[in-house]
Structures are given as structure tokens and as C-alpha cells.
Amino acid sequence: MELEPAAIAASLPDDLLLEILVRVKDEAALFRSATVCKRWLRLITDRWFLRRRWPQYSPSSFVGFFTRGNRHGEPDAGSLPGPEPCFIPARRSALGPCRRSLGSFVTSAHAGLFNGALPLISRHGLVVVRLEAHDSTGYPDRTIFQLGVCNLHAATCVMLPPLKVGPNFYCYDCNGYAILTGVDFCSKDALTPTLQPSNPLSFFKVIIIGYTSDDLKYNLHMFSSDKSSWDERTNCFDGDAQSYDYGSFSDAIVHNGLAHWIFHNYREGCLQVTNLNAKTGHISLTKLPLKLNYQPTRPSCLTLGINGVLSLLWMQKEGPQLDIWEQREDQGNMRGTSEWLCTRTIELRQPVKNNEIRELLVLREKCGALLISDNYGQVYATDLETGMMEKIVDWPSRRSICHWDSMLLEIDWPTIFISGLTK
């Protein structure tokens, strides 16, 4: 007896069925195929399948950044800026050309929630913000670290349990922040589809490596959306000597379930990579063997290079040049030792030629877009491939600029596609 086409398709192994699906030329037909059954939905919404199906498109793209409003002077370590954060779109942003408040990305039920908020990190359309906490008298409470996770795709905001901290728990670069989603815990093997959650943004994990001057130690705080409380571990660097202003963190790079930060160790005058396994909470520090002729106190950041290679972006002290240091691919990120090489130097191309000496500082990076500031208070969006610098004319004027003045936002297209199909 001959089998029906549906029965034949059901009998095919996943790898063979994937080979058939990837050859479906009509996009609408492919999307309709995802509604046939749960198995087909799982295969088609696998992000590695999507990358194979559309290799010409980057899975993520830079769309703009959130920045604080104008204020006089810089905030104290435990204070928050007063105005609601403002989103400034990048050129040809998929979110449109208009400036928007953070509150405009969520439903009206959260109106007023973001006055005095500070965006910290973002990933896959989830934005972690610190919100103002108040005591019983209505005054700001600096011993409560109140965070919210905004889902810009679903226009929602989840309030995390208040984190009780000391009054000197720093909010800015003395802490390391990271957020991971369900996508980050999937298999990294592109040929082996994994069962993803019904919505890849339904699960997230927020991580803080927080420094306080009360006990001069770094403590690990982790919150998972499937739990009701924070997991905490004191002195997470396992007895390393601590001192005031011990160091500062870059933005986290998340890859294969690991979070990585560049850590500026001011006391020892060196750079280290802090590696954290988000599943186990294991932390290791890797000292970078960079042969630099000056102390590494200038801002720098990590990025993911080609094929997921962990890379360091380092601004040269003299001249408008950016060095890219790459970790050797044959070295494990969690082993405590690795080899780093300077593989490329980018000549930064400023939009206007002038004879004034401008010191350039790295602020933040996302999806190949780098924010750079100069000592004249100007901020530029820079393309890492071409080195072209474009002045951001809408940047709020301030007397000084730090990397926490902005938070870059990317859109992850596979995640949007998966979320839309699984609603």
C-alpha cells in the first residue's frame, strides 16, 4: 500500500527533512510549512536553520541606542538620572527615524515606570533597566536594587524581585551585567536542531557581578525567570585580594551559554577577561598577555569576530586607530589561559578633517557598530568594517561622557520570526 505524502514526510529523519525545507524557494510557503505540526515548527524556527536559509542576512542588526536626557554634572555612584531614557535611532533604523521614550516601547499600563530609569544591558530585544526604588517615606532607597526586564517585541515589562544591597553598591562600570535568553542555552551545533521554548524570550537569566565598598568584594547575583528569587554568592572571585576601585567591567559578550567581560584591574595595571558559565555559575579570570606600553585604564570592549571568535577592541593612544585582538580559536574560554593576537588595525576615518588633536575613547559596541567619543564631547557611530565615523547630532550635550550614558540596541531577526510564529 502506498503511503500518503504526509505519512512519507512524517517518516523522514530530521536531517533529511531539513535538507528539503532549506530548498523551499518561496518564503511564504516555507512560513506556512511551520504551521503543519510542532515538529516542522521546531525545525523551521531553529535559528541555525534560518541562518543557513538566509546566509546573506545578518541575524542581528544595530538599530539605535538609549541615552540619558540632559542633566548638569554626572550622577553619584548610587544615584539615577532624572529624565526618562530616550531612544535615538541609527540611520535607516528598522524602528523608524523618530526619537522615542523608553516608555513608548511598552503598554500604557507601565506609564511612568521609567522616570529616573537607567538602561543597563540589552540582548535579543530584552532590555534590563534599573528603576528607582523608594522607602516608606517616598524618598529614594539606595539599599534596594530594583530591576525591570522590558520585552520590546511583546511590549511588556517584568519587575524582578528587589535585590537588597549595601548603600555603596555601585551601579555603573564597577559592576558586570549580562542577560541571556532561551536561545543562548540551545545547542551550538548548526546540524543538530534543538527543541526551543515555545517563545525564545519566555525564559531569561539576569546576571550581576556587583562590587560594594562595604566589604571590598565582588558578589555574584543571578535571577532566572523560572524562579522567584535571586541566587547569590559572596566573594565570587574566590579570595582574590580586593581593594577600593579594584576594577571596572565592559559590556558582556554572551556566546554558547557563557558571559565574558573585559575587566580593567586597576590595582595590578592589567586587563583580564572574566568568564562566567551561566548554567553553573563558575567564574574564571584570564589575564590578557597584551604588550602595551601604557597602563590599560582606557575604555575598551569585547566583541564577537568571525566564526564567534572572542575579540578585544582597543583604541591606540596615539592616532585615530583601533586595534583588534583575537583569542586563538583552539584555546578554551574557560581554561584560565589563552593566546591573544593583534590581527587587525582599523584606521578611523573622521567625517571632518581638522588640525585639533582629538583623543578618541571607546564607549560601547553592538553588531559591528561602535560608539566613540572625543575629548570635545562629540559622539560618533563607527562602522567596524570600514572605519567610517558619523557624528551623532542628536546626542545630549554634557560636560563629560562615559560609556553608561548610552546603551546600544540590536534587533535579532530570527528571534522575532520565532516569537511571531509561536504566539
What would you note in describing this structure?
By secondary structure, the protein is mainly beta. It has two domains: 1-44, Monooxygenase, CATH 1.20.1280; 45-414, Neuraminidase, CATH 2.120.10. It has six helices and 26 strands. A hairpin with a 4-residue loop joins strand 10 (204-212) and strand 11. The model is unreliable at 71-81, 187-197, 292-297 and 331-336 (pLDDT under 50).
* The CATH architecture of the largest domain: 6 Propeller
What's the multimeric state? Answer: single chain
Radius of gyration: 23 Å
Number of helices: 6
Low-confidence residue ranges:
71-81, 187-197, 292-297, 331-336
Mean pLDDT: 77
Tell the overall outline: globular
The tally of beta strands, per DSSP, is 26
Q: Would you tell me the structural class of the helices and strands?
A: mainly beta
Number of domains: 2
Classify the helix fraction into a percent range. 10-25%
Write the layout of secondary structure elements.
Layout: H1 5-11, H2 14-21, H3 27-33, H4 38-44, H5 47-53, E1 60-67, E2 86-89, E3 100-101, E4 118-123, E5 126-131, E6 144-151, E7 156-159, E8 163-164, E9 176-181, E10 204-212, E11 217-224, E12 231-233, E13 247-249, E14 253-255, E15 258-265, E16 270-277, E17 283-287, E18 300-304, E19 310-315, E20 321-327, E21 340-347, E22 360-366, E23 369-374, E24 379-383, E25 389-391, E26 406-412, H6 413-421
Antiparallel strand pairs: 1-2, 1-26, 2-3, 4-5, 5-6, 6-7, 6-8, 9-10, 10-11, 11-12, 13-15, 14-15, 15-16, 16-17, 18-19, 19-20, 20-21, 22-23, 23-24, 24-25
